[in-house]
Amino acid sequence: MDGRPWGGAPASRAERRDRACDPGAGGVDGRVAAIDSELVGEQHVVDVLYQRLDELRAQSRRRLAAVRRAGPSGSPQNRSERDAFATLYEDRVAQLESVEDRLAFGRLDLRDGERRYIGRIGLTDEDQTPLLTDWRAPAAQAFYRATAAQPDGVVRRRHLVTAGRRVTGLEDDVLDLEALVAAGVDPATLAGVSGEGALLAALGAARTGRMGDIVATIQAEQDAVIRSPLNGTLVVQGGPGTGKTAVALHRAAYLLYAHRRLLERSGVLLVGPSRTFLRYIDQVLPSLGETGVVTATLADLYPGVEARGTESDDVARLKGDAVMARVVRRAVRQRQRVPQQATRVRVDGRTVVVRPQDVAAAIGRARRQNRPHNQARVTFVRDMLARLAEQYVQQLGWDVPPEDRAEIVEDLRTTREIRIALNLAWMPLTPQGLLTDLWTKPHRLESAAPELSARERALLVRPADHPWTPADVPLLDEAAELLGEDDQAARAQARADAQQREAEIEYARQVLRSTGAGDMVSAEALAGRFASSGPRLTTAERAAADRSWTYGHVVVDEAQELSAMAWRALLRRVPTRSLTVVGDVAQTSAAGGTHDWAAMLDPLLRGSWRLAELTVNYRTPATVAQAARRVAVAAGLPVSPQTSARDVADALTLERVADDALLAPVAASTADKLAAQVEDAAGAGRVAVVAALGRAAEVRAALAAAGRSVPAGDAVDLHAPVVVLTPAQAKGLEFDVVVLVEPTEVQSASPGDLYVAMTRPTHALHVVHARDLPAGFGEEI
Ligand SMILES: Nc1ncnc2c1ncn2[C@@H]1O[C@H](COP(=O)(O)OP(=O)(O)OP(=O)(O)O)[C@@H](O)[C@H]1O
Fold this sequence. Notes:
The chain is of the alpha/beta class. The strands form five sheets. The chain has a six-stranded mixed β-sheet with strand order 3-4-2-1-5-6, with helices on both faces. A six-stranded parallel β-sheet has the order 9-8-12-13-7-14. Helix 7 crosses helix 8, helix 15 (373-396) crosses helix 16 (402-413) and helix 22 (488-515) crosses helix 23 (523-529). The longest helix is centred in the first third of the chain and has 41 residues, at 29-69. It is globular and about 115 Å long. Mean pLDDT is 86; it is low at 1-26 and 531-536. The site of adenosine-5'-triphosphate (ATP) has 23 residues, from helix 6 and helix 8. InterPro entries: DNA_helicase_UvrD/REP, P-loop_NTPase, UvrD-like_ATP-bd, UvrD-like_helicase_C. It comes from Cellulomonas phragmiteti.
């Protein structure tokens, strides 16, 4: 044991090894010797794999150095080619560096005698003989899926336990003992029985504040989700800790591997609930060798807008309602107006009249084009100027040649009164301008939103200098879509860019043919890195900066939090509807979020989505998970059925304090004490205090008074041994121990919040309360 205060802590490496090496019949000397010799054999294989990895790293570094040595001379084409190759080798070096930890973690023994090692990446020797199979390759699938009932040609699955480059333990999962014995394997050399040790060790390990990958221990139901086909929308529902985030990230890595050509070009977007959460997961994809995924919160989706403002839940809920799509649409249409009266304007001694009937006809024609407001406005203005020019010409009384007519049109266009009249009829608009007008001018909101009550409209009113909020972002996006830009120049540029890009891809193909680097990069990706002048952005960078970028695949985590308007903004970015949507409708806390996937997604996706469920909680000890479940059920949440992978002794502690004023100091001192207990020799082990907003500030102050500074807000430092979070901030994260302060207070904001808070710990939940606990807490089911 490692001295941690609860039972069931992870076994030491030596213990694991002993346990793994003991198939149940007691420690017979001969058996131990046989297993030791297996370990020696595996060490030899692993040595060969690392040696190959080192060679490949050295090779890529040499190539990189050679490219850099060539210096900045030569034609622009030569320079761009060199830059592209430099980036390529840099990426390759980074990829090879990132797979150091647990390079190889498994072995499959197949019925035909083949032995296949499974690892983070695929490796071959100089003669292209396979040494290591990428976990994502079809040939690795049986490692995660094969069972004794359906062995899929596998007679034995072996987990390799490694520390650095050393093999420290083995676990065998025998799927076909007869076949194994028939192949001459001595049963005495079988290590362990089921592969459970590797999983349990991973689950019990102290947390570091950063999520790790699960590539060595993906379970069968998770693997089915990870390898599900790219097409269409896959919704993954699962209770807390069932691995939804882990699965979503591994699926992104899998899809990039299986559909590299398509996805490298169009990009993959991963949407998470907060920046803290994105920091928490940001190591996982790189550790799987993938760096090109764009990550964002919904509030970041509109380039150029920092949505850091806050507002009440009622306002956020209203802004997220699907009805707002109609409101924004109407607000745009209302800026296309037929004036009540004619406007007479003097131009060069003649009078032209902006007549309501002409404006009505021009608006009608422009609208029939079905183009966004600002683009259709070009048609409207052209039409009106032609009508006014006609009036002008009529007054001249002679035939005007076309070139003179153009001059007259230009004169009319630049006449101030005419500009004002035409703008009043069809105002050029920005999304920001449109929305600011709606929130700051009650008469505009009233005419745009008749379906809202006076009370609801009053809620939306705010001062002009109010910062943008996350719930504004989907509305800005909606407005941008309806307004469009005057994009004639942009479209011409896009056509030219597309031609240029085709030429670059063809050139990249030739380069790849002549250099033989085709297995490292596709022609499309290489072309993306060619720069004829200045640095060219990667797909991820281009995509992140472009509101109208459409991705090849979008992964949404904590998707239950998205409002109907947020979904509309997101779906615009993936017209193919190739999405992975993971979440738990019992954990919803956002005002506009959902408790029912079908109710939210059916109208948006016309019923076309498929559901997968994850059912095993890998995070929370059974005692805590059951208590959380009872409380959630009592609160009426739609809780998914789940079982816990493990339990831990003394996982739930309830501590009642005499009055409210003691909550913060007791929570702070408890957290402080537990932090010292959970920290292991390597500095891992994390404690979180989770409390409602105001209470969290009190706990922070109490910790600061005791000498522990705990930053607030978006600056949450996940590396700190103790953090203080609101339930919304804790969403998606996990800690060794959670100190939960006054559950009734947390629940009163949202029952989903309490469910989230209770299910964050991997080892123990310590509850500090002054009031009675919510229903379900203490009872047995
Ligand atoms: N197959 C596995 N092997 C090892 N660890 C796993 C496995 N599946 C999940 N885990 C671990 O379980 C924990 C919970 O996983 P994850 O955060 O992905 O769950 P979640 O379903 O997204 O939870 P929540 O809904 O509460 O945010 C993580 O530490 C993850 O690494």
